[in-house]
């Protein structure tokens, strides 16, 4: 696979932030806090929401939504407060921040596999200009996966033109 750590890396942040919030006191929580690229899989990058859910874009929940570790920290903190449970808007927003990485994660395994097949050459993995086209149609791959096009979707047509 092109990026074998991606699926686990996305979920990594959720587990780490949850682990921090299990601490008994503030001092222990600070001691357990992971910073920068520290974590179970250091060096990975956050894969934040980037506007691929049309209904979410129309929703008031999308306004000022912070993703990544900082967003998760805030969401966990707010979910632990009684008043958040009484304010449905904040409760839904916090849940969405925690859930989005789970919604996204399964797509990456299929996408990586699809792209990796097209990167393989006899000499191994070689990146050329035509691979930019593959990377640029991420949304189309996602749509094909959701629609279960079985290799007959828009992304495959682009792939055939590139190769």
Automatic annotation (TrEMBL):
<dbReference type="GO" id="GO:0006952">
    <property type="term" value="P:defense response"/>
</dbReference>
<keyword id="KW-0652">Protein synthesis inhibitor</keyword>
<dbReference type="Pfam" id="PF00161">
    <property type="entry name" value="RIP"/>
</dbReference>
<protein>
    <recommendedName>
        <fullName>rRNA N-glycosylase</fullName>
        <ecNumber>3.2.2.22</ecNumber>
    </recommendedName>
</protein>
<keyword id="KW-0378">Hydrolase</keyword>
<dbReference type="GO" id="GO:0030598">
    <property type="term" value="F:rRNA N-glycosylase activity"/>
</dbReference>
<keyword id="KW-0611">Plant defense</keyword>
<dbReference type="InterPro" id="IPR016138">
    <property type="entry name" value="Ribosome_inactivat_prot_sub1"/>
</dbReference>
<dbReference type="GO" id="GO:0017148">
    <property type="term" value="P:negative regulation of translation"/>
</dbReference>
<dbReference type="InterPro" id="IPR001574">
    <property type="entry name" value="Ribosome_inactivat_prot"/>
</dbReference>
<keyword id="KW-0326">Glycosidase</keyword>
<comment type="similarity">
    <text>Belongs to the ribosome-inactivating protein family.</text>
</comment>
<keyword id="KW-0800">Toxin</keyword>
<dbReference type="GO" id="GO:0090729">
    <property type="term" value="F:toxin activity"/>
</dbReference>
<dbReference type="InterPro" id="IPR036041">
    <property type="entry name" value="Ribosome-inact_prot_sf"/>
</dbReference>
